[in-house]
Each structure stands twice: as C-alpha cells, then as structure tokens.
Write a structure and sequence with these properties.
The complex is a heterodimer of chains A (about 300) and B (about 240). By secondary structure, chain A is mostly helical. Chain A has helices at about 15-30, 35-45, 50-75, 80-105, 110-145, 175-190, 195-205, 215-235, 240-265, 270-290, and strands spanning about 1-5, 10-15, 160-165, 170-175, 300-304. In chain A, β1 and β2 (about 10-15) form a beta hairpin. The longest helix of chain A is centred in the middle third of the chain and has 34 residues, at about 110-145. The two termini of chain A are about 30 Å apart. In chain A, about 55% of the residues are buried. By secondary structure, chain B is of the alpha+beta class. Chain B folds into two domains: about 1-200, Macroglobulin (MG2) domain (Immunoglobulin-like); about 200-240, no CATH class. A six-stranded mixed beta sheet of chain B has the order 2-13-12-4-7-9. Chain B has a four-stranded antiparallel beta sheet with strand order 1-3-11-10. In chain B, α5 packs across α6 (about 215-235). The N and C termini of chain B lie far apart (about 65 Å). The chains are: A mainly alpha (about 300), B alpha+beta (about 240). At the A-B interface, β1, α3, α5, α8 and α9 of A face β5, β6, α4, α5 and α6 of B. β5 of chain A pairs antiparallel with β5 (about 60-70) of chain B.
Chain lengths: ~300, ~240
Amino acid sequence: MEIYLPIAEVSLDVFVLLALGGGVGFLSGVFGVGGGFLLTPFLIFIGVPPAVAVASSANQLVGASVSGVLAHWRRGNVDFKMGGVLLVGGFLGSLLGVWLFGILRRLGQVELVINLSYVLLLGTLGALMLVEGTRTLLRRRRLGVPRRKLHQHTWVHGLPLKMRFRRSKLYISALLPLGLGFLIGILSAIMGIGGGFVMVPAMIYLLGMPTMVVPGTSLFQIIFVAATVTVLQAINNRTVDAVLALVLLIGGVLGAQIGTRMGSRLRGDQLRIMLAVLVLAVAIKLAVDMTATPEQLYSAAVVL
Amino acid sequence: MLAALVALSAGGARGEPLVADLTSHLIGITGAFTGTSVVLFGATDGPGDVVVVVRGPEHDVAVRRKRRVAGVWVNTKEEVFVGVPSFYSIASSRPLDAITTPDVLGFHELGLDYLRLKLARGALREEDTPFRKALIESQQREGAFGETVGKVDFLGDRLFRSTLAFPSNVPIGTYLVQVFLIRNKGVVSGQTTPLVISKIGVDAEIADFADHRAAIYGLVAVATAMVAGWLASVPFRNA
C-alpha cells in the first residue's frame, strides 16, 4: 500500500516504512542509540531525497527517544542530572557545529567530511569496544565471578566543579560531561545525527557510567538534540516530512519497546559487543563505499 | 470525449491545421497518489506526423564529477545548469529523425539530444558534454526525462491521441504541453496547452503549512512525535 509523502514528494510503501521504523526502533531500545545513522541511509536508498531523509529522521528520533526514555525511566535507569549537564554542553556544541557546517558547505566538501568523520569515529569506537568487551567476557569465563572496580582514579578526577551523580554512582567534575556534550553537539550538527552511538560508548568509557544507566540517559538527551534539529531544519530548509516521520514512528515506538525489554535481559558486556559489531559494520560499509568505484561518476542535485 | 473529438474534427475541417486538448488540465496529488496519466487528443486537417512534448517548471541543477584522490572518491568538479526543465517527455507518431531534420529538432528542442541546456557560467563547451550527458541520464533514471516513439496513435487520418504518463515523484508546478504537426519535414502548426500539477487535500495543507509557518510546523512536528512516543509506551506501562 503506497502513501504519498507531502514534503518528500514521493509515494512509498507504508509497510516498508513501518518495517524500517520498527527495525531502527528496536536497535534504539536495545542500545540507547537513536539509530539515525542507519535510518537516514536507508531512507535515501528507498527514494527519499537526502535532505528530507536527514530532517525527517530527526523528527522521528524525537518520538522514538521519548518512548525509549519512558521505558527506561520506569526501571529507574535514567540519570536526569547527568543528562541535563550533557545537554547544556550539547546545545553550545551544536551552535558551533551549525556554523562549521555552513563553512564546509561553502567549500563544497561537506559530504566527504561527513563520510570521513563517520569512518574514523565509528571505526575507532567500534574497535575499542570490541576489544574491551571481548576481554571482559573472557575474564568472566576464567574467573567465574566478575571482579568489578567502580572506576579508576586518573588526572580527570583532579578537575574543579565536582558534582555528585547519584544514579550513575559517580562523583566527577561537571566539566567532563559538559565537554563531552559539547563535542557531540558539534558532531551531531555536522553529521546530522542524534549522536547516541558516540554518546553511549563515551559515557561508558570516558565517564565510567554503569552500563544499565547509559541507554536511558543517552536517549534523554537525544530527545532534545533531535527536537532542536527538527525545528531548525523546518525553519531553514523546509525538509521535515511530518507524515514520513509519523509512519516511521509507529513502527519505531513498537520496536523500541520490544528492544528495551530485550536490552534489560542482556548482560552489559554482551550489549557492548553487539553494539561494537554494529558500529564496526557501519564503519566498514562506509569505508568500502568511499573507496569503491562509484556506479555513477557524476551526480546531479537540484540547486535550491 | 467522443463529442469533443467530433467537434475537433469539424474544427480541423474548417481549416485549423491542428487542434488538441487534454482530458484534464489539473492533476491533483493526494495521499494515495502513485503516478497518473492524462490523455491528449486532437485532430489535424490532413495527414502528417504529430509530436507531443511535456515540459515541467524549470530549476537549476548542479552536476558533480567524482575523482579518486588518495584512494577515496571525491567530488572534484561541479557545473551548474540553469533553467533545466524539471520534467521533459516527448512522444511522436514516428521516429523523430524520420519525420524531420536536425535543424527543426534543434529549433523546437525536440528530443533529449536537442534540449538546450545552459551553464550558469556561460555557453556549453566541448569538455562539458559529459556533464550534459550525466544530467540527462540521471533525470532519465528518476523518470523525469523520457523519450517514446509511437506513443501518438492515429485513429484514421486525422484524429490522434496520446497518453501522457507522470510518475509518483513528479515535480509540482505549471507544465506546458506542446503539440506539433509536422508535414514534409517542417512544422506546419503548433499548439501549447498548460497543465497544472499540484497537491490537493490534506497533503496540500501540510505542505502549505510547512512552507508558510515553518517554525510552528517544526514545533508541531516535534510535539506530535513526542505525544506519539508517549502514547505508544502506555500499553507497556504495567508490563
């Protein structure tokens, strides 16, 4: 059954869109990543114009994240204080990011920079997580009971403005989540994603948050990042297709609920290995695409 | 329609060399739109060939070429074409090169090979030919450009009809449907009819809202998504 999307100006099969939304929602529920980095390429693949795909993904992420956060919240797995601090950093970062994006676009190489950032970032993160996850899994096998250290003391614990984050069982400088939020805000604006897949590993490895609190807290801040992006895209580019977003969302929220339950049944280290494999797979796919001889050497795009 | 054809045929007999009209001058795009077609019918005052051209509203298109730089494919060259029709389809009763000369085809822009495409920085040079070819091929892949021979059917000597097809991703705007009557390799008559393609119904209102109240539309889109997300999680609350 086809449905006409008023802003994208194409007709697409409703069931394909529902399935796509469901699959991405499932991932978002399990891992706490928004899934924009998978959704956007898939939408473009099925015929949605790239600009509309990016903006409408952001719109559907808002709903999917709300649904995910509610599910995690009922399990007490959202650190609102941490989320709030990350968010402040994120807003400042996205302002800088939007400005940088404008410069890159004027230089005409924004696509290249986006792809390169994805490959470098996802490749590094995926590899690190895979090594770390496998090591933990092996250690657990050997010792039977995991020996757990809350966190290690390094130079970062000497930073000023210390804050207590009860849910995360952390007493760290507010500058850390603020700085992290800032960096991810820049990346989100340039790469057009919520940043969950960068945020999640960073929260685990850089901030040392307990894995169970991470997805809910990450989704909490994605709501706001995605909402900001949606409104800015609607105003600046008129590329938000609310009908597309809503259809994706119907599939997405159901997927997210199922995903959240699956996620809470899996162990933290298993979760990390699965996310690592997913992130690496996307990085490898992008790297291969960048070096493979393109089917079409020429591309055409309407100048607005 | 039969009555219209009879009337047209009578008109043709009175000396108008070519009369043609569309079954509809407005294509409304609604939620269920999956592409459509409009029938063009008409009459001539005698034997001859008919060519039908449909042109969509014009826009500018940037064509970029990729080169391998340090193993990675990068856009290295860009040419901007101005005034490119967003839709172009041509149908004829016989192959174009059989019914007229290249000069005539060029003058009336009949056929994709004869489409006059201008660059933003000036005239098209020899080395720009690949860019022109790439532009036309990409439009053909999207179904926006098309060439069909034999899609103008004659019913007897004078009456003809042609079905103009539009894909689901057809650009909206005012189209021009040009009909040419060709005899002895020359255009003896021509007629241009407008055709409007626009969104109607709820979809039109959504698109209009997004256009004129962009900020509010963005906020509404966000709010709708939030409510949908909340609603969807309600059934799972006590699970």
